[in-house]
């Protein structure tokens, strides 16, 4: 089950499509979602969480807590919604597009993809792009 907490309107309005798409992403990689929670934070809240859990004193786009067992995903994802919107503006894309990428990025980490090296970053970006192509048309916002 995938849940969205404190979610913006677009997420609430498209909850079922997002749940289905993210579940498909995970299942296409031979894993199952037991539980995944996406919690939306403002910049202050995500900065406090980033400092508390990772020792970084700045707002971030995502913090992922992975409690998965083998190929069964149990995940809590903290999303810095204001930071995601800022990044979207910097990249010249919609906030929904950036949010979709960040959510799938978090799940890919839990499946086993990393982005520490340049090679890993390239692989991660290709996987993100593949996942984004699978979104229902309703979720694609220019």
Offer a few descriptive terms.
alpha/beta, 4 strands, four-stranded mixed β-sheet, globular, 142 residues, 6 helices, Collagenase (Catalytic Domain), 20% strand
Could you explain the architecture of this structure?
The protein is α/β, with parallel strands linked by helices. The chain has one domain (2-139): 3-Layer(aba) Sandwich (Collagenase (Catalytic Domain)), CATH 3.40.390.30. 53% of the residues lie in helices and 20% in strands. The protein has six helices and four strands; from the N terminus they run βααβαββααα. A four-stranded mixed β-sheet has the order 1-2-4-3. β3 (62-66) and β4 form a beta hairpin. The mean pLDDT is 96.
Secondary-structure element string: EHHEHEEHHH
Radius of gyration: 14 Å
Strand content: 15-25%
Separate helix tally? 6
The number of domains: 1
Quickly name the level 1 CATH class: Alpha Beta
Cα-to-Cα separation, first versus last residue? 28 Å
CATH superfamily: Metalloproteases ("zincins"), catalytic domain
**Helix residue percentage:** 40-55%
CATH architecture: 3-Layer(aba) Sandwich
CATH topology: Collagenase (Catalytic Domain)
How many beta-strand elements? 4
Global mean pLDDT: 96
Shape: globular
Major beta-sheet overview: 4 strands, mixed
Helix-strand category: alpha/beta
Give the low-confidence spans: none
Strand order of the largest sheet: 1-2-4-3
């Amino acid at each position: 089950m995938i849940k969205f907490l404190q979610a913006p309107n677009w997420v609430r309005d498209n909850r079922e499509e997002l749940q289905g798409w993210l579940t498909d992403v995970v299942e296409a990689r031979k894993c199952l979602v037991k539980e995944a929670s996406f919690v939306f934070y403002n910049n202050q809240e995500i900065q406090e969480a980033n400092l508390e859990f990772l020792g970084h004193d700045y707002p971030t786009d995502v913090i992922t807590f992975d409690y998965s067992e083998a190929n069964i995903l149990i995940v809590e994802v903290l999303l810095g919604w204001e930071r995601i919107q800022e990044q979207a503006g910097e990249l010249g894309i919609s906030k929904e597009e950036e949010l979709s990428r960040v959510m799938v990025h978090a799940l890919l980490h839990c499946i086993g993809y990393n982005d520490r090296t340049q090679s890993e970053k390239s692989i991660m970006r290709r996987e993100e792009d593949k996942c984004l192509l699978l979104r229902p048309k309703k979720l694609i916002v220019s």
